[in-house]
Amino acid sequence: FPVDRIRNFSIIAHIDHGKSTLADRLLEITGAIAKTAKNKQVLDKLQVERERGITVKAQTASLIYSHEGQQYLLNLIDTPVRDQPGHVDFSYEVSRSISACQGVLLIVDANQGIQAQTVANFYLAFEAQLAIIPVINKIDLKNADPDRVEAQIEKVFDIPREECIRISAKLGTNVEAVLQAVVNRVPRPVASIDDPFKALVFDSNFDHYRGVVANIAVLGGRVRKGDRIVSAHLGKSYEVNELGLLRPDEHPTQKLFAGQVGYMIAGMKDVKEAQIGDTLYLQDHPVEALPGFKPAKAMVFAGMYPMDQSDYAGLRSAIERLTLNDSSVTVQRDSSMALGAGWRLGFLGLLHMEVFNQRLEQEYNASVIVTAPTVPYKAVLSSAKLIKEHGREEITIVNPAQFPDRSVVSEYLEPMVLGTILAPDSYTSKIMSLCLTRRGIQKNMVYIDEQRVMMKYLFPLNEIVVDFYDLLKSLSSGYASFDYENAGYQAADLIKMNILLNGQPVEELITIVHRGRAYSAGKAMCERLKDSIPRQMFEVAVQAAIGSKVIARETIKAFRKNVLAKCYGGDITRKMKLLKKQAEGKKKMRRIGNVEVPKDAFINVLKRK
Ligand code: GTP
């Protein structure tokens, strides 16, 4: 394919607006996949993705499309998108896949209209100066109102309404017009076959048998099987073992040319060797790396420990295998008096952490204790001794247990985010009071049509990372949407809070809180802990403390009756069954002092209802 008949594009959308359905339809029309009776989504692969209805890993496909007697190669570059805020979690990956494109299809649901992630995605594409094709999907719905959505698009994005394409991805209505628009409105890639070989890595996967499979966009020249290439970031060289196109299955080829998108296998053993955003070139013809390469930045940290120290090696290998495929997770060894040896892992957001944990348990059968998630705080040290120890004045703290005391610190800093909330205006006052309780500062508020408002708030990341989205959804009956982006650090009055069970500190539940919020946060945690810990044979005191000062307390009353009492004299098998059930229950319990705590309590107690 000559470069002027190649188009590289992506589909971006708010969750559930129909990205996967449209992708499947495009694949069908161009014959890349057979028409299936069911609306099966080919581009979504992982099991947890299916379960949670989210796309975690991007998939890519090259389509061949005939238009006015010419054949075009349309490279659909899929972007990982999340169904929760912190889609920004992945925006670095998204922005890299977007930088391999010259255009995007911006899908908007004809009934729901513009949502928070529509806005976030639009700006990513807009800042990358891509052609943006607005597509209004689900026009078959009874409540579809494409006129209203077109007006929103015109108002919020300043795109003339005439440019919108109305489709039903589900029924296939007008989908052909989308392909035509890709040909006509997306510019050809700027890539010349005569330049030295240069490629952008926009996704990478680890395969047990073949090593790292990198998805690349060739920005210049050509690469052949057997060539020696170098990855600019690490400067390591590799021999190209296999190359090919993705249609969407792998089709091996001998070469890849400027303008093409495909996969490459080159003996890399770890996805960290083919990081998203990295540049590849031929060993004999070095080129300048593409600008803007930066490794993913973890924003949520948690400790992970084996339930039983004898599972340490098993958990280590499970974590190693999972991180082979996800270079955005950071792993550090960690240990604690209470939990033994484990790790401190860094994630892009809470959903990322939950998916990781779920995969550990489901795919590797690991039983893991996860500590309360924390955001990366900073402290400016005032103690000369500590500054010398750390070799610097400003340190980052990702483990609340290691939070330095006020007496050795001149200032604490916390990470901030700029949140975007879209909702029907009837919920405005409820939303505003929720934001206020989360130390939110309103930056902006506009009507995007007669009934819908868009608000911008500056929040401490810590205040919204765990349960803000759930609360926002429930107070708006599901109508509000939310997204956020990084907004740097700000000074804050922070303190460390401990939770005690019968006087014994719970390592998993050490949290950093804002001084003004300490009392209510401590009270809420004690209340929820009381609800999540089953009654024991004795009374349990649940306390929140700052230093040695107790600021909140709840009491879990002792059992009245023995569970086995009702079986006395009765059926022995029934008794055995009951004991076995209890033993099974115990496996999921963690003993703190003399108290048994269900292991899922540690994350649940952070979620406010
Ligand atoms: P993620 O993969 O999680 O990002 O979601 P998505 O944006 O890809 O949405 P998806 O394609 O999974 O569609 C979401 C839901 O909308 C599914 O139940 C689809 O069947 C439905 N849907 C998609 N397109 C249409 C349409 O044109 N009409 C109607 N009525 N439903 C549609």
How would you characterize the overall build of this protein?
Helix content is 25%, strand content 34%. The strands form seven sheets. It has an eight-stranded antiparallel β-sheet. It has a six-stranded mixed β-sheet with strand order 2-3-1-4-5-6, sandwiched between helices. Strands 21, 22, 23, 24, 25 and 26 form a six-stranded antiparallel β-sheet that branches. By secondary structure, the chain is an alpha+beta fold. The chain has 15 helices and 33 strands. The longest helix has 16 residues, at 572-587. The protein starts with 5 loop residues before the first strand and ends in a 5-residue tail after the last helix. The chain binds guanosine-5'-triphosphate (GTP). Guanosine-5'-triphosphate binds next to helix 1. This is GTP binding elongation factor GUF1. Pfam families: EFG_C, GTP_EFTU, GTP_EFTU_D2, LepA_C. GTP binds at residues 13-20, 137-140. It is a peripheral membrane protein.
